[in-house]
Specification:
This protein is mainly beta and 305 residues long. It contains two helices and twelve strands, in the order H-H-E-E-E-E-E-E-E-E-E-E-E-E. It starts with a helix and ends with a strand.
Length: 305
């Protein structure tokens, strides 16, 4: 937990050093909402599906030298669905430097810790063996963290009531059952933010992003390599200025990811067990995929500097 607390502190304070009292004059509301440090409570809903199929095909030989074909395999399916509570810390800054206006940078850290409904089904088969299957389900621990950073450039339009900010992003996602870091993935990508001032106090905020997930845990260690897959993001929110510095924030974010299928094959040398002599296992195949739909609702306070 010490590392998580450290990430939160870096998220809240890391960008504040970029700001200075001389750097910001009276600004448009759409720019002001990008100069905040905030803390929110969150509720996150996830519907995640995964499947994995593995098969062996080879030849065995009895002690008399008789050849027999051999095949075995198994498949599993799981689903994780439900809500978990958490919190989110945000820090963003927009400033002018080197003759360039409205340069943008932000950092965000989120944490979820609760329980979701988990369902799992497993089935296996093998030559000369009866099929085997089992299933279980129930409540299971669900832990996750999200760390993200963005840099970009804002463009003021419509008499400074609309701000469009293209950005580049990168970060790290982790999730697990008993621990926060059981599985983890780095991602890099780009996106577009839009802020529109409905009034001098109320700003409507939108965000669309895409990222490539660079690393994914496949669940088995057979030399499998999982190609990069896409992470799609979208969000809507509002920012209401209650006082000169204190803002009320709320909104929702959606993300979708689908991991591409992973295949592998290998050849094992001959071996012997009991009266059987294994000639070879020339074909080993694995097919796995997963997809996840995530919705996060958030509400909190932010301080405008």
């Amino acid at each position: 937990m010490r590392s998580i607390r450290g990430q939160v502190c870096l998220t809240i304070l890391g960008l504040s050093g970029l700001t200075g009292s001389s750097a910001f004059a009276e600004t448009a509301p759409v720019v002001a909402v990008n100069r905040e440090i905030g803390l929110s409570i969150t509720g996150s809903f996830q519907d995640a599906l995964s499947s994995d199929t593995t098969s062996y095909v080879g030849t065995t030989y009895t002690s008399t030298g008789r050849a027999r074909s051999y095949e075995s395999g198994w498949n599993s399916d799981s689903r994780r669905i439900g809500w978990t509570p958490g919190f989110r810390a945000d820090s963003s800054v927009m400033f002018d430097a080197f003759g360039i206006s409205n340069l943008y940078a932000s950092a965000q850290f989120g944490l979820q810790d609760g329980q979701r409904n988990y369902k799992y089904h497993f089935a296996s088969h093998a030559t000369a063996s009866a099929p085997y299957t089992f299933r279980f389900g129930g409540k299971d621990d669900a832990k996750a963290t999200s760390t993200r950073g963005e840099i970009g450039k804002g463009f003021l339009l419509l008499s400074q009531s609309l701000l469009l900010t293209p950005f580049a992003q990168g970060g790290y996602l982790s999730n697990g059952f008993d621990n926060f870091g059981d599985f983890g993935s780095f991602f890099v990508g780009a996106g577009l933010k839009a802020d529109y001032a409905l009034t001098s106090r109320l700003v409507l905020r939108g965000r669309f992003g895409w990222a490539a997930v660079l690393k994914s845990h496949t669940g088995y260690d057979y030399g499998l390599s999982s190609s990069a897959h896409s992470l799609w993001q979208g969000g809507l929110g509002v920012d209401y200025r209650m006082t000169q510095h204190l803002h009320l924030t709320a909104g929702g974010d959606y993300s979708y990811t689908h991991r591409a299928q992973a295949d592998a094959s290998t050849t094992n040398t001959s071996n012997s067990i009991g009266i059987y002599s294994w000639g070879s296992l020339p074909h080993f195949q694995n097919h796995s995929s997963s997809l996840s739909n995530d919705v996060t609702l958030h509400a909190g306070l932010a301080y405008q500097f």
